[in-house]
Amino acid sequence: MKTVYKFLFAAVLMGTVSCKEEFLQTEPTEFISANQIAEASALNPSLQSANVAGIYATMYGAGTGGTTGHDDFGHKSYDMYGDLLSGDMALTSVIYGWFRTITEFQTTVDYTQQDNYQVWRFYYRLIFAANTVIDGLGGSDAVPATAAGRWYMGQAKAMRAFSYFYLAQYFQNEYNPSEKILPLYKNTTDPNLPKSTAADVYALMVKDLTDAQTLLADFNRANKSEVNASVAKGMLAYVHGAMGNNAAMKTVTADVIATGGFKIMTAAEATGGFNNLATSQWMWGVDITVDSKLNLISWWGQMDLYTYSYAWAGDIKGMDKALYDLIPANDIRKAQFATASKLAPIGKFYHPNKVIGGQRTIDADYIYMRVEEMYLLNAEACAKTGDEAGARKSLKAIMALRVPDASYIDALTGKALLDEIYLQTRIELWGEGKSYLSLKRNKGTVNRGANHLKFVGTPIPSNDTRLTFKIPIEEVQNNPNLNK
User: Fold this and answer.
1) d(CA 260, CA 449)
2) According to CATH, what is the number of the domain 2-269+368-478?
3) What is the pLDDT of residue 41?
């Protein structure tokens, strides 16, 4: 683990070395200590601007999992891992073979494979980068005196929690608070640490995200590539849901719905390409431009027929056939998928120019979170806490914009209501990296449809060990304290 920290230490900190000449001259110039950064940041919190920007850049950069693989393009890589593991996304052909080991459960079973180390490295690199900012602003218990300092601290804490959440989801089979699951690094100077319990890991997430909401309460972000208070609340909703804290999930999602200022996508927007950060329903994403220098090694390079991509070349990731068959013919989301192209999402995710194979340098944006997630999480939480009227209201808010008549929801109760919420979550958020999270929250069972290449029709419950990554061999070998 510390090798990952060392890899990032110089890269992240060097971005802060541009001013305070007398500060630089008092210490050797080859390295910059955490103490120096903290001293400088106390005088000028904006020194952390480059570090926070670096966190967001890591989220979508090629190779940020430490490999040259074409499945290594930041957080959206692991969104795709989860979608494929959940079975809702089918790899329908393997001309080139990217993601095949995921869909065949080779990576999750074999801890020596590169892909599981890639997941581990990526999120721990984000954690180190976040800890760099937090340390530079005085540490986890500090409240910076300036507004800018509070905002940087809030974003860093949110991103640290976000990263631990995905590690916990991918590396713990199912939530068990007493199980030791991950080393819990809270600063950049921690030595190699043993695994902490899930209770401790999740407690840090809750604290970080609760702090972030307060720290970001008056933050008006420049664009939706940055985390604000609403996004931090959305992250917290997922954390509570994973722990089974449904009452808390209900409260926080209701807050986002009421105060976030986001509206549900119309039918036209639901088939509008999911390519523009300015879409009013998007809560968080990234504005990809030609200056981002993304190309084939990108999410669009895997998914979009209208991009120079593996999808265009024949490695199509389509909707699971069994799930597709559950979408009514009059549901607008049926049009998101092409039956002639192995249920590829050519009506959901596409470059706006719609030239087949046309987008070479990526300028279509990435989505990380949208408000429909909050409505669906709220519906789920309401149903699980006995507020069925509230559950129906939140679910109907979406379905009224997807089907001509959503009145069928009025008659749903009990398990039928919960099942419908789970189904609509899978359909609405398909391909956005949320299916795996929903599968685990709802203790569902994967039943792959006919367009998968392997394990068709084999029931795979959410707690099947093949759906969870093993701590990689590199960590086992390099961290002597891991199992103490």
Assistant:
1) 37
2) 1.25.40.390
3) 60
